[in-house]
Fold:
Amino acid sequence: MDGDRPIGVFDSGVGGLTVVRALMERLPRESIVYFGDTARVPYGIKSVATIEHFAAQIADFLLGQSVKMLIVACNTMAAVATDVIRARAGAIPVIDVIEAGALATVAHPDRGGIGVIGTPTTINSNAYARRIHALDSSARVYSQACPLFVPLVEEGWLDHPVTRMTAQEYLRPVLAEDIGSLVLGCTHYPLLKPLLKDVVGPEVRLIDSAVTTAELAAESLNAMGLASRRAGLPAYRFVVTDIPLRFQTIGERFLGRSLGKVERVDW
Amino acid sequence: MDGDRPIGVFDSGVGGLTVVRALMERLPRESIVYFGDTARVPYGIKSVATIEHFAAQIADFLLGQSVKMLIVACNTMAAVATDVIRARAGAIPVIDVIEAGALATVAHPDRGGIGVIGTPTTINSNAYARRIHALDSSARVYSQACPLFVPLVEEGWLDHPVTRMTAQEYLRPVLAEDIGSLVLGCTHYPLLKPLLKDVVGPEVRLIDSAVTTAELAAESLNAMGLASRRAGLPAYRFVVTDIPLRFQTIGERFLGRSLGKVERVDW
Structure:
């Protein structure tokens, strides 16, 4: 397979752009097609059947763009729809943020008890705990849904007293369990890292699933001989199902750079 | 037309159940078909073209249920898609939460300056200010988007310090304008009434668009000779596009009573 084909990254909205940002930094030669389902975001409050249906549609779209790898950047889809996506992808490798986060967390020697935070659907799926326990059955995992973090990030209240008070309330039960690691199980949460670091204190290591996903993608591409060897600049495409008010502003906050032209597909 | 036909009420999700609740209290003989687009909620962050498309689909569905009146319970749809809905409805009367809120606000003799709060799409559409100015060009209107109120209500933090702090921050600029009325321009906001009353103080009258919509519906049905004369119990149907986690709990909080059986349609 041609290593110069793009990587397909997908998410329910803009959050997955934190994964794209980490991929651009870790794999600067790779071309990327990003798909964000902004007309139907957020997935975290929808039923499993609906999320599976949407995930299959998006996977088919990206496979139609001749991608060499699929990255499920949406924790909610990774939690409940990876089987559906893998079945669509066939021989194309699929990696996801939950697998990447679980691997990175368990690999750390001083991980201690493991806290996991995410949307209600991600947490109720128990996907992080299951994947972590599949890697190490002795791991202690404490999970907490944080439904207000996504709207707080989208409001831009990244360092706001309301966000701090909300984080203190959500994290109180997890912090009572003497954890050593906290997995940020939602692509919006890396933007809250400085505030969360303050709230959890210096003893707790934050696991950023955007960074761990880029790392796992790099390892997988190398292992499969699929890394790009191109000398020129990579191509980036951003495809969404809706371009709502403030999309450009919010998207660029996640990506950490200009988005350029955004394409809209109509379903 | 048969007055025993149901009223069709629609919303992007569960919020419109506050309007249904007010209708049940004000018009206890009327049957109601409620449609909530829970698979695609929230609309408040989507583009106008997408909202118009969704609104037309829902209007067609309810017109297919032989409703005698359409009530647009979603402020976002009322703000940007009423023309599309009226064109679909033809001779069937259409009333909406913004029209009802604007009429009730302007009608009050001591209204003073008028504050309006809502989702970003509702506020940016300027629909409340336009409808209020059409009724009284001398009205002073001060608008403020409150994007975190919907997630805070859905989290159930109706009387929480985080919600209070958020309300104080959002309302500060509006309260600086010496207002006499505050229009709750989103169907989620009636659940925050006690907290908002505290934050705005006793001098400011809260206009609850669920209550004003039920009042306008009653007046319109009477004026058109369309009120139900049935002696038996009315029928209530609740149709949604997705039944997510916690739907029943959240829905019943809005409705103030049991939802009974909820039907799901697949699009």
User: Anything to note?
Assistant: Chain A has two domains: 7-96+211-264, 98-209. The beta strands of chain A are 7-11, 32-36, 69-72, 94-96, 113-118, 141-145, 179-184, 205-208, 236-240, 262-264.
